[in-house]
Specification:
Length: 593
Amino acid sequence: MTVLVRESAQNSWDAKTSADVSFKLDLVTVSPAHRQAWVELLAPSAPSDPTAARTLPAMFRTSTIRYLAVSDRGTSGLGGPTRSDVYAEPNQRGWLSFVLNSGERQDVDGGGGTYGYGKGAFFLASRVGTVLIYTRFREGDQLHSRLIGSALLSSTTVNGVPYTGRHWWGLPGPDHCEPLSGQDADVTARRLGLPGFEKNETGTTVVVLDPDLSDPSLPDDDAGEMSTESAGRYLADVAAWNLWPVTLADRAVRMHVSVSAHGVRIPVPSEHDDAVLANFAAAYRMAMGERATALCCMRPKQELGRFGHQDTFGATVTSLAAAELGLVGSPHHVCLLRLPDLVVQYLPGPTKAHPDVGYAAVFKVNDDLDSIFSKSEPPTHDAWVDVQLAGRDATFIRVARKRMLEKCAAIAGPKTHGSPAVAVPVGSIAQRLGFLLSGVGGTGAAESNPASRGAISGGTGTGPAAPTGNGSGVVAPKHGRGTTSAPRRQSRPILVGSPFFASHAGRAVLVQKVRVSGPAMLRGSASVFTGEGSLETTRPAGGAVPEVLGWRQDGNMTLGELVEVDEGTKECELLVVPVVDAAVDVAVEAMPQ
């Protein structure tokens, strides 16, 4: 499925004719109203491949016919001659290249596809090796439709005559099968329930019969299959992690991606609801803007491309589709792009010292080197391989990788190396460094004065990605220092659990749950905790400071430091925008009413 989405989207992007390209993935179970048409039109004399685990005749005998419709609109469609032995101009070979001449290489200036590999992904994704192709294109001022069925099965010999294994549904002739065209194509597509075209739309729908929905989280020899709903969510994730650069809302030319299962729309993750994608999008804009870093080859002297990165903290990748691309946990990767802006690969770099801190980077090849980098890609377009090239072309690929990894090493910073332990009492040291660990439970090895327990103001955190509340959970007033022995009053807010990172409106925020007995007015604040054990009072030159974004209660968001809580015991969340590489003190106080 990953290969299918990558290759089909690449075909659609290369065929775009407008500033807005629509790319849709629809998992469909044929309804009773359309099933009879499927059986009447496709089942008679359906070919059977004895080497396949599942055959077309067997599929039509089941109670359920399922397909995946891959559709694009705002694209050119598949025009041109319908016979391979007829000459066609280079820009009139859509039907020949996609439908008839499988594997034909077709170079598109600035395009992603070069091997003609993408069309084979449709057949490979079908458990019965069969697709339907429904297209509309423009010739002059006229719109034309075509519909044909095609199966790519094992080659065989019948009565001493060899056959290729290709089969067709259409209008058979003595030596050729023509597609249904015009009104016949449109009427038949409606009978089958296939996605249609609006008044002046052009584009193509490829219907993959009986799609292989094997669960990618299971071993290859496991026959487990995803449900249609789970497969839809997986396809949405695949589309998000492979296509996000061309879907950004501020692009002049962009792709609109949608996914559905059983007619139910499935949200496609984007920079607006996924923190890691948001960081990659920010890195992309940096690489495209004035703050980009140029990566260069010195011998021969050549600028290779532009590099941008964004530090991340608390943003982690949990998507199975992303894991297939090598993205797990905190990102430490460079997204490789060339002219089409389609993801080639996520190149892993060194990790940062803290597991919750990472970086998202983007490298975009200079346009004048696009053809060189495209030639270095394997048929799946998912890497740049210098051994496929020679001379300075190979040098450019090799040096680009080297320069990117050098940048990643500088971003990751030095690693922390352990030293041999020294057998000395650690009680006094633990007391003196206790402010750094105020959010961690336990009292340490030293005997402490009961009056000093909980003396650190509530919410002080340790490290850039694990700020936590104090051990007692009681938050002292901002300018005071409370103790755990002090009696609790109902109006005093209580920290609930440890702070955690979450995504809000496309950005990473630190969330601290707070419980209070209302009515009350709460005020939240956040400061950097310095190495001397005090709160930072002056912003460092050019430095960032944590900020209170607002409060969230009962699903409603209140911006700013203050929030009013109604009668009764309530639980709300304080949202703080943290900073990288700093301990953050989060304080909450009840204001006089």
